[in-house]
Amino acid sequence: MVSNTSSIPASNSRPKTTGRFRFAGTNDMALAHAGPWLVDPKTSRDHLADLRELEQARPGVIWLITSESLARQAEILRPHLNTRLPNGRRVLLRFWDPRVLHALNAVCHGRSERELFRAADAWHYLNEGQRFTINDNGID
Predict the structure, then answer these.
(1) Ranges of each domain in the chain
(2) Predicted local distance difference test score (pLDDT) of residue 102
(3) Labelling 60: which of 113, 122, 127, 133 has CA 20 to 30 A away?
(4) Dmax of the chain from CA atoms?
């Protein structure tokens, strides 16, 4: 699951995550505490209710279905963080935001454009109160 856990109430301890996901190996490593975070629901059961509440309250949670470890999933997702605009400028692609993910799903049609979506077995998220699933891997 990808979440911006900085939105979880401070009174709760943070779920087991990998903070290396977003900024490892970049000049912005100091920002890693801000998320996004990968959270393993099996080892963070105490936080699932908070994450479900956060998902309902504001865009900030995407549920990834994957058989990879958190560290390996972070490695798989990391190359998709930055993209290049037509003018050559590099930008951060906020695909962990359900609104951005939904827009990407609507406009990315070619195989290479959809590479991000194959980075996990399936992606589940809410957009404007409606549940969506992206499954480019043919796994049910």
Answers:
(1) 2-134
(2) 95
(3) 113
(4) 45
